[in-house]
Amino acid sequence: MSFTFSREEAVLFDQQDELSAFRDQFYIKEGQYYLDGNSLGLLSKKAEQAVLSLLDSWKNYGIEGWMEGEHPWFTLSEQLGEKTAPLIGAKPDEVIVTGSITVNLHQMLSTFYQPDGKRTKIAADELNFPSDIYTLQSQIKLKGLNPDIELIKAASDNGTTLSIEEIDRVLTDEVAVLLLPSVLYRSGQLLPMKELTKRAHEKGIIVGFDLAHSIGAVPHELHDWGVDFAVWCNYKYMNNGPGGTGGLFIHEKHHDRLPGLKGWFGSNKEKQFDMAHTFTKADGAGAYQIGTPNILSTAPLIGSLELFEEAGIHNLRKKSLHQTQYMADFFEQKLRSFGMKKVTPSADEDRGGHIALQHPYAAGICKAMKAEGIIPDFRAPDIIRLAPAAFYTSYQDLYEAMQKIQRIMETEAYKNYSNERNVIA
């Protein structure tokens, strides 16, 4: 695919975009080029209305809202889990909307990580998000073991991507559980989840994925691939709002397992209010809930999932790939000479929903972008992440943003800013 990077081309792409109408569903600040949907998605009108609807339910029903209204709170997590399932290739009862990535990962590890004999290790990678590593360290320590010994990490030869060979190298007969990100948060590399699951299972290893940077941007087939469990947040491409309730997947072959962390919302719903001290687990993924669901932090997802049903995840992925290719080619052709290096893999099958650029003055460049109305994402020490969101990013947005970034690099305007991250990068 060859781009001309002209305004006329951008206008034509927008005219041909079958998803362009969805842009009007989102609140987009005038004069701003929002390219941070991989960190926090924008608010949609449907999500806003869903929050207002549940507030209205609280206002009108009070405590009866648990069983009354358009979206009874008591079963809301299960209903939204069913609607999420098609996005990740899961059966309806394999998904539940609950908790956060870290809480859900603690739940899954406490359920699946049962050191036995020489199988005492957890395999991860050295590029993983810190919170996931903290969770693995905690779970190992809770088993009375030493995280410095029992947590092994696949190494990266370039500091931005992982090879399947290096991951395979750490899959020894001492490993009980493998946890990997679906998409590496720094580089945007999409890992071959199907192949990795197959290789790990051949060695008797439980496989889990953190889908934070893929759900809502990349289709999955978790059930057919045989993935044992997965966790994710819903505030990135899923547009569920800051700190919005996350989700978890647990394959149906494991639904007989008792949750490692029992909580009353994991109870069979017909038994939950018996108030017995004997735990009767729910069927399916609902058993792995812990506490009472955060209804108002879940509410936006009602509207967001309606948009996904209308647009279709495969259509969103097609546009996302085209837009990230557009950006990647621009940087390769226009900005490489300014010392900016694209670290995101080029092949469609190896790329998630964002483009990552490496530059020694990355923090200062991000500040210069913000001064021009471009909202990027900085990751220490030297990564700039840019994510067009297929729902609401237009090609004219991309064209304008790319032109501004080129001027920033040509004029070295970024040198007017300190090359240090803000408190929140």
Automatic annotation (TrEMBL):
It comes from Jeotgalibacillus alimentarius. Its EC number is 3.7.1.3. Pfam families: KYNU_C. This is Kynureninase. Keywords: Hydrolase, Pyridine nucleotide biosynthesis, Pyridoxal phosphate. Pathway: Cofactor biosynthesis; NAD(+) biosynthesis; quinolinate from L-kynurenine: step 2/3; Amino-acid degradation; L-kynurenine degradation; L-alanine and anthranilate from L-kynurenine: step 1/1. SUPFAM superfamilies: PLP-dependent transferases (SSF53383). Pyridoxal 5'-phosphate binds at residues 101-102, 129-132, 210, 213, 235, 264, 292. It catalyses: 3-hydroxy-L-kynurenine + H2O = 3-hydroxyanthranilate + L-alanine + H(+); L-kynurenine + H2O = anthranilate + L-alanine + H(+).
